[in-house]
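ok, trying the design again with the full structure, not the truncated one.
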């Protein structure tokens, strides 16, 4: 393993490329994903009120990770850990937002006004 990371970069990359070739995750890749999730959630642990909230976010992050691993472009990147960590972090943020019903860009959502239904159905501009 690399001395800077808890996951061997070359082994993770190999497992990810091998999984893409097979069309499904290898068992070692699944273990790496779980290890990435467990280590990443430790840094965010103080953000959660209780263990249930943390575990809900962990599961949402894992779901995101296991759903989006195929998007990794091995021709463009030579390391997979930063990519997978970012997917997981976005997944736990999504889980947190689901728990508290936060919707992105809610403040800037445009409102639609129907020209036909305003003014008792006579239209917006009633010219006589």
């Amino acid at each position: 393993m690399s001395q800077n990371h808890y996951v061997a970069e070359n082994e993770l990359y190999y497992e990810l490329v091998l999984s893409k070739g097979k069309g499904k995750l290898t068992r070692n890749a699944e273990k790496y994903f779980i290890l990435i999730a467990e280590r990443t959630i430790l840094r965010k642990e103080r953000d959660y009120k209780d263990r249930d909230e943390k575990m809900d976010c962990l599961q949402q992050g894992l779901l995101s990770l296991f759903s989006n691993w195929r998007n990794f472009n091995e021709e463009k990147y030579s390391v997979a850990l930063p990519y997978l960590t970012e997917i997981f972090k976005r997944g736990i943020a999504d889980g947190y937002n689901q728990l508290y019903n936060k919707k992105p860009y809610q403040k800037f959502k445009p409102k639609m006004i129907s020209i036909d239904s305003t003014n008792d159905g006579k239209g917006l501009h009633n010219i006589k």
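Keeping the full-length input from now on. The chain has one domain: 9-99.
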